[in-house]
Amino acid sequence: MPRLPAPPLPKGLRPRPKPPGDDNGAGVADTLDPLEAGVTAVDWIDERTSLTPVGRWLLFRKVPRGVNWYYTLGSATLFAFLNQAVTGVFLAMYYRPDASGGAYESVRYITTDAFLGQFVRGMHKWGASVMIILIFLHMGRVFFFGAYKYPRELTWIIGVVLLILTLAMGFTGYLLPLDQRAYWATVVGVNINAGGPFIGPYLSNFLFGGADFGATTLSRFYAIHMLIIPGAIVALIGAHLYLVTKLGITAPPWLKAEPEKQFQPETDV
């Protein structure tokens, strides 16, 4: 039975033609240098995903005059969140949400015995404070520069929700070591929420997992801290970055807008 011929290679995977006079009998493997192979692989992926236009849309865009270091506070806050996400994953590998003593012992093991555990926990602990400071500075810059006005109102609203979620993530994470300070600080914080109008008592019952602090409280705080809030933050950061890219950023308020030049009709002399 005759064998069917192999399909031809795509244009991007075909080797470059040899330069004139280079007839040394080199094969296809000899004509593809590593750089060309890498470019070919990237082209192969881009042909199937069309990521290049998205990259150009995200990275190659116009920015107004007068942009300075104040405009990097948003990117710094994003970097702080990534630090929290990465270090939190490593801490979760050793942490046990056990209210009968396992939580405290797991944190003690991370701090004293685990390889680079004290460093990773310190990065996570102090990174939380850094992220809260940066997000307040970023929102202050947006407010004083007037970047919340039309057409960026939705971007500002998403930023406010991200601020609330960041504070909630810090509050839920404070309980996880389950030492005396974390326990009583959480009890005081939840009781303050319980005094709120209408939803206060329901919110207190939801956080405690009952009428008072119990065994399910730690598991509930751990699930909120590790799953619910980070997932919501990731989704809102994606929407926030999309709107920032789509609508652009505002110029500093001390720069006056220049009027557009009008074309003058030609006149005969």
Task: List strands and helices in order, with pairings.
Layout: H1 28-31, H2 34-49, H3 51-59, H4 73-92, H5 102-112, H6 117-144, H7 153-174, H8 180-194, H9 200-208, H10 215-247
- Computed Rg: 28 Å
Total number of helical segments?
10
Mean pLDDT: 87
Main sheet properties: none
CATH homologous superfamily title of one domain: Cytochrome Bc1 Complex, Chain C
Task: Outline the low-pLDDT stretches.
Answer: none
Using DSSP, what is the number of strands?
A: 0
CATH topology of one domain: Cytochrome Bc1 Complex, Chain C
The N- and C-terminal alpha carbons lie at a distance of 86 Å
Characterize this entry briefly.
The protein is mainly α and 269 residues long. 62% of the residues lie in helices and 0% in strands.
